[in-house]
Design brief:
The protein is an alpha/beta fold. Helix content is about 40%, strand content about 15%. It has a single domain, classed as NAD(P)-binding Rossmann-like Domain (Rossmann fold, 3-Layer(aba) Sandwich). Helix 3 links the parallel strand 4 (about 80-85) and strand 5 (about 135-140).
């Protein structure tokens, strides 16, 4: 399948759990891909290499974002797809979150999305002028609609990304640039495993295996997702098949947020 044949894509967080799966899927579908991240090993050092181009990028630094987009401009002169997958999670209530942690969460999750989108716009416009349109895919979360305990800053940032996505879709749709957000639930990534191990899980002395099974059981589909599940949806939204999809928050959570909260006796 070559759904993205000839398209140029940049994926922030491209060496993370979900980002790496998106990069791999984009390559299989024919795109030229830049994997942008803080380190080439990302959150999974030792993972099998791919043939994407790595860009070292701190999305919270405007000079770094400008340089990354300058590289794309020099290589291709356009950008068809921007995926804002870089993100961090802090497992604390507001009472225990420092101002530095709060600001860092917003710097990466929200300001990073703003900066990469802002400086990608001239390249995205160049792609849109070719007639095929361009696509920005942000990363929200089901935690931007409802909340897990102990994730106050993370929930706040994802709600902000949801609102920003809608605003960008309205502002830049007339230019041929579609903007959507993926809102994953529990996805099997290093971030999720860190959640199981951390205070935010509310483990109450349970083993990690017991916590993982409890999480599976609360889903109507009785499982949580994989990075490849997310990559499937991202790829469709990036493709011309999704030409009429914009301004939407695409929840991918195995039905978790569709059900009434279970009573805890």
């Amino acid at each position: 399948m070559t759904r993205l044949n000839g398209k140029v894509a940049l994926v922030t967080g491209g060496r993370g759990g979900i980002g790496r799966a998106i990069v791999a899927r984009f390559r299989r579908d024919g795109a030229e891909v830049y994997a942008a991240d803080l380190a080439e090993g990302g959150s999974r050092p030792g993972a099998a290499p791919d043939d994407s181009r790595f860009l070292r990028l701190d999305v919270a630094r405007e000079d770094a974002v400008v340089a990354a987009m300058g590289q794309v401009r020099a290589d291709h002169g356009r950008l068809d797809i921007l995926v804002n997958a870089a993100g961090i999670e802090i497992e604390k209530t507001i009472e225990h979150t420092t101002l530095e942690e709060w600001n860092r969460s917003f710097a990466v999750n929200v300001t990073g999305t703003f900066l990469t989108s802002k400086h990608a716009l001239p390249l995205l416009r160049a792609a849109a002028r070719s007639g095929a349109g361009a696509s920005i895919i942000n990363f929200g979360s089901y935690d931007g609609f409802i909340a897990d305990p102990g994730l106050a800053a993370y929930c706040a940032t994802k709600g902000a990304v949801h609102a920003l996505t809608r605003a960008m879709a309205c502002d830049h749709g007339p230019e041929g640039i579609r903007v959507n957000a993926i809102c994953p639930g529990y996805i099997d990534t290093p971030m999720l495993q860190g959640f199981f191990e951390g205070d935010g899980s509310g483990g109450g002395g349970k083993t990690i295996d017991q916590l993982q099974q409890a999480v599976r059981d609360v889903h109507p589909l009785r499982t949580y997702g994989t990075p490849e599940d997310v990559a499937n949806l991202v790829t469709w939204l990036a493709s011309d098949e999704a030409r009429y999809a914009s301004g939407q928050l695409w929840v991918l959570d195995g039905g978790l947020s569709a059900q009434v909260q279970q009573m805890k006796l």
